[in-house]
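Lab meeting, item 3. Inverse folding demo.
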């Protein structure tokens, strides 16, 4: 989600905008002198039409736990949780959000990137569930509790974090298993449209073209088990944290394979050779031999030989056979894109050609 602020918002809220190290779709801000909606009704007129955090404060601590709200803006919260060496220590914040849209929104997930969460021994859990709704013009209050992971002997007791509380229109609420791949897909579209000589797409193509030094051919690249360090490191860099997210307190890795292939059967679209860019995504562990795994696919094409890319259709859900690196049918850790079929047993070529 891109964040845009107009000067009027800054004046009303007293925002101090300080860019910090941010990854992917996340933004980081400091916030000064927050005004609640009750204090300034005009605020509703200038904020974007979606769900905003309007209040955030410490609620309670157990075992000596405490927490400080450093700031918030839109759906992003910056806080510091201060637990103790008591293993049952917790700290709870109370958040209040407002739906400034004209339609019902639903809670999707609380998400963060690893680099924006500096203590992996502490987990975060909201009291709301995926799918909980908030009507237009309504408020919703919920708790956010920080606690130690099970089995941890506390040593590092402080957590600094930037959390995104993601609310989406009810009719666009994805299944819970799609949450992580949505972020990776959004970042992929940014990558392939950064087409200057030193841009992300050039880096991606250069790495794909170096298949001979990466134990694969030049038609694909992925971060699957068995891929070379140079492949996985380049993808991690380009995806800016969107291949490793924490979703509602659960670490989630996204495995991705990117392919150059003619999907739409039209030699005049795609790159100069008529090939689309297809991205295959899964959060499955890919650890079951002779099995299939849920895999999502999205296809991008171009009308000007790859200078500008756009998505064909939607992101499609399906399955693909689990294999080892290079297609070893007796292995695990990867999947065979050639075996992908949608939930209604269509190939990706069938789906795209039917558009």
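The presenter then showed the designed sequence:
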């Amino acid at each position: 989600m891109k964040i845009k602020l107009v000067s009027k918002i800054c004046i009303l809220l007293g925002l101090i905008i300080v860019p910090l190290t941010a990854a992917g779709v996340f933004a980081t801000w400091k916030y000064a002198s927050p005004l609640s909606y009750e204090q300034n009704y005009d605020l509703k007129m200038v904020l974007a039409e979606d769900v905003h955090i309007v209040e955030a404060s410490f609620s309670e601590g157990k075992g000596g736990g405490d927490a400080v709200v450093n700031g918030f803006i839109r759906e992003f919260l910056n806080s510091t949780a201060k637990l103790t060496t008591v293993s049952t220590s917790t700290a709870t914040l109370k958040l209040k959000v407002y739906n400034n849209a004209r339609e019902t929104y639903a809670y999707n997930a609380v998400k963060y990137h690893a680099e924006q969460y500096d203590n992996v021994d502490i987990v975060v859990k909201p009291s709301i569930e995926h799918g909980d709704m908030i009507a237009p013009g309504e408020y919703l209050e919920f708790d956010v509790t920080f606690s130690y992971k099970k089995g941890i002997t506390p040593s590092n007791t402080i957590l600094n974090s930037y959390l995104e509380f993601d609310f989406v229109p009810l009719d666009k609420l994805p299944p819970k298993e799609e949450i992580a791949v949505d972020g990776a897909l959004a970042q992929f579209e940014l990558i392939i449209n950064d087409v200057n000589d030193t841009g992300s797409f050039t880096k991606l193509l250069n790495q794909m073209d170096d298949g001979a030094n990466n134990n694969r051919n030049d038609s694909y690249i992925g971060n699957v088990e068995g891929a070379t360090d140079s492949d996985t490191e380049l993808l991690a860099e380009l995806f800016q944290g969107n291949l490793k997210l924490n979703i509602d307190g659960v670490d989630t890795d996204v495995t991705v394979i990117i392919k150059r292939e003619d999907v739409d059967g039209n030699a005049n679209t795609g790159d100069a050779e008529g090939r689309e860019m297809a991205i295959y995504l899964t959060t499955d562990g890919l650890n079951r031999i002779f099995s299939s795994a849920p895999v999502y696919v999205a296809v991008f094409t171009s009308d000007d030989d790859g200078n500008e890319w756009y998505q064909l259709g939607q992101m499609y859900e399906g399955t693909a056979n689990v294999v080892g690196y290079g297609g070893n049918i007796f292995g695990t850790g990867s999947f065979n894109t050639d075996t992908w079929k949608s939930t209604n047993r269509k190939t990706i070529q069938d789906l795209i050609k039917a558009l």
